Write a sequence for this structure.
């Protein structure tokens, strides 16, 4: 079914086997008569505390996530500014250095995409950005000074955004917060399994529903914490789109002489 292939359902599908396992465990515990806990107000208090903690964690990771949504587009814009200057310089001076810089920008775009999938090292990307200096130096006699300043600004933007992405994907927002959220969620799920709730069939519904929500939210927060997690899984709804970079890679011309 198409909705099962949709990226927005993949996390729910990933959580479902865990919930099914908890429900089966509940059935076994019930059949063995091992439900020794009683439902009381403390369960509600613990659930409320966990909801508050989850809300705190989500509010924290969403700040980085909203910033991260803009970065691929900004990377693409900075790279395209460089390719535009290559085109302008070539049309004006027919310079070979403009072609070489265009090839370098194309290679840098492909390298950044591979790096985002952790197929290349961060140091290599920074080196490729630094290597732009040699091309800018060669372009100085061929273009206006403000054009070189513009190129240097875009180089600085590239370096800043690469550093920011590296920081976001290598640093967890609040590991201690994740740990306590996982502990509380696990205790609640186990507690519900051993809690006697009448009527019995309603208990199955509440165990399944509460377990699904708790596990889903913990896993969602972890995924949101690293919106550049392409190297572990593909097509999840909570990764920011790399379409601007893919589109730019296709738009960069391979031969300036063919451009009109």
């Amino acid at each position: 079914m198409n909705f099962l292939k949709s990226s927005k359902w993949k996390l729910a599908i990933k959580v479902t086997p865990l919930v099914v396992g908890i429900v089966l465990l509940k059935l076994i515990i019930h059949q063995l008569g091992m439900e020794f806990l009683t439902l009381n107000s403390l369960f509600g208090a613990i659930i409320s505390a966990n909801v508050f903690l989850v809300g705190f964690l989500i509010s924290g990771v969403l700040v980085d996530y909203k910033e991260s949504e803009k970065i691929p587009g900004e990377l693409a814009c900075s790279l395209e500014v460089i390719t535009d200057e290559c085109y302008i310089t070539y049309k004006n001076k027919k310079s070979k250095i403009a072609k070489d810089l265009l090839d370098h920008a194309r290679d840098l775009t492909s390298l950044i995409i591979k790096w985002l999938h952790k197929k290349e090292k961060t140091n290599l990307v920074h080196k490729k950005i630094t290597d732009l200096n040699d091309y800018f130096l060669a372009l100085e006699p061929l273009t206006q000074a403000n054009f070189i300043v513009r190129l240097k600004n875009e180089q600085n933007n590239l370096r800043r955004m690469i550093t920011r992405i590296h920081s976001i994907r290598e640093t967890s927002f609040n590991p201690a917060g994740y740990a306590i959220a996982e502990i509380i969620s696990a205790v609640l799920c186990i507690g519900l399994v051993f809690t006697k709730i009448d009527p019995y069939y309603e208990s199955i519904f509440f165990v399944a529903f509460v377990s699904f929500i708790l596990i889903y939210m913990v896993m969602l927060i972890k995924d949101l914490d690293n919106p550049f997690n392409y190297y572990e899984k593909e097509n999840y709804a909570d990764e920011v789109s790399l379409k601007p970079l893919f589109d730019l890679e296709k738009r960069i011309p391979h031969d300036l002489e063919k451009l009109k």
Summary: Strands lie at 37-38, 195-196. The first strand starts at residue 37 and ends at 38. Residues 1-5 have pLDDT under 50 and may be disordered. The radius of gyration is 26 Å.
